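Annotators were shown the component list below and the corresponding predicted structure, then asked to write short factual statements about the assembly.
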Amino acid sequence: MADGSEEEIGEKQKKEIAKWFLANAPAGEIQYVAKDVRSILGDDEIYEMAAEEAFPPYNKAHLITLELPDRSGDIIISTFGEVDMCNYLDPRTAQVATVDHVKQVCTKVRAATDDELPSPYIEEFRDALDVELCKYVDEAYPKGICAVYCTKGKDVEGPGSDFEFSVVISASKLSPQNFCNGSWRSIWTIEFKDDLQVVELSGKLQVGAHYFEEGNVQLDSNNDCKDSTMMQAPEDCAVAITTMIRDHEAEYTASLEASYLKLPDTTFKDLRRKLPVTRTLFPWHSTLQFSLNRDITKELGIEK
Amino acid sequence: MEAAMDLMRRIPPNQSEMALSALLSLLPHHSADLLSQVDQPLQVFFDEESGKEFIQCEYNRDADSYRSPWSNKYHPPLEDGSIPNPQLRELEVEANDIFAVYRDQYYEGGVSSVYMWEDDNHGFVACFLIKKDGSKKAHGRRGYLQEGSWEAIHVIEVGIEDEGAAHYCLTSTVMLSLTTENKPSGTFNLSGSIRRQMSMDLSTEEGHLCNMGKMIEEMEGKLRNSLDQVYFGKTREMVCTLRPPPEVIQHRMPES
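Structure shown to annotators:
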């Protein structure tokens, strides 16, 4: 079992292990994992160093949403809105929120500066898309939150240049009392190509679910998709883009459902059948005969 | 230990090997507890002498060697490795042969091994193991799975025979992972592990093997069913809650 070499590991290694556990926490469970890791480490200093490094990437990757301190709404924590390590832009309200990553709360909020916001020309496209997207998200996700960021060309003043938006949709449902948590994350990159007069979309959709009452079962699913449309006026672009997002996300939801429906009788069968090939329970009572005819049994085993 | 067990039910099941080795290095003084309470992925080894594969686990390990149920020899060779007494070994041989047939009827492939040893209470313990790779490139007959593994560990403690009956206590664990990949649906992975116990007092008229086999068969059926219906079902419900399918939204509309 534990041989001498394993007895003591260095602090650096302990911190790396702690970070690994935190990074692999399912959606909405990092605080529970943190509690366990802290008690296993028995060293608050190492834990705090690990948490300091592990929480920010986790929060951004999971697109966690935090309530703004003035209760004006929720902000999504994502790389697209990152001003610096602790400050995140909320493009809809043009505010920058200061975030405590480890506590997962917003501590204060300020108005964004002009430098942090896109030009009026870009904002017209961004705002139009945000309005359409919000309508869609309200309708499709009972607990969805979305944001539209300008990720390239935010200072473009008018037609003639390319720019890019990133759309994120984050929905999570946490019910630890029912041993069940889950999250939906979509990230859409939308490139407005001026020379070709096209808008190109590429999406990454990710769904996770965890059920852990007397067990541990997790769903991890993701999908990439692409689409494109013509460059039009801001409102028309917004409608066309939102329609494409809606269609792809609906198609993905339907395909997840189809994967589940195929499970019991097809997919799962390749692991273990419900009943033996003979369609009757295994004849354990006649095992005595089996062992008497061991050679035949062996043959059977090979033939099947 | 409590915190360690809580972590094990949160970390993605397909990462459990890494999680266990991380816990072992953080909690070296709990290594015995960890190894007995956390089921590890099963490894398959080839026994050249008998030309058959067998499964390695804690139950057939002595020092750094593993005993093959087919040849009763340790790999790599071990001078004084512990082996079951002749009577128990006879039952073990029989159990391996019959369990291989059982495994083939339910799994259409895979590897199985049965190990037995005497316990301190004059009874014995038997461990039935199954490992199946159901992926397209291995034993997946229907070819639906990009990746698919099923590992079952059944440990049965058998008490001493008393007036033609014995007490059987079965602890079973199933660990599985399945991945499908399709054009419109992307990658779809479900992984999990569950463990259950079942105790019975049974007449030994038809022999231990028959009793143990029936218990295992019943338990495997239950575990498969609850993974399919309950556990996978709960994750499916979760997906529907996050983004309800269109028919649900239409139902909701009139209310709002």
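Statements collected:
1. The mean pLDDT of chain B is 91.
2. Chain B touches chain A through 93 residues (CB under 8 Å).
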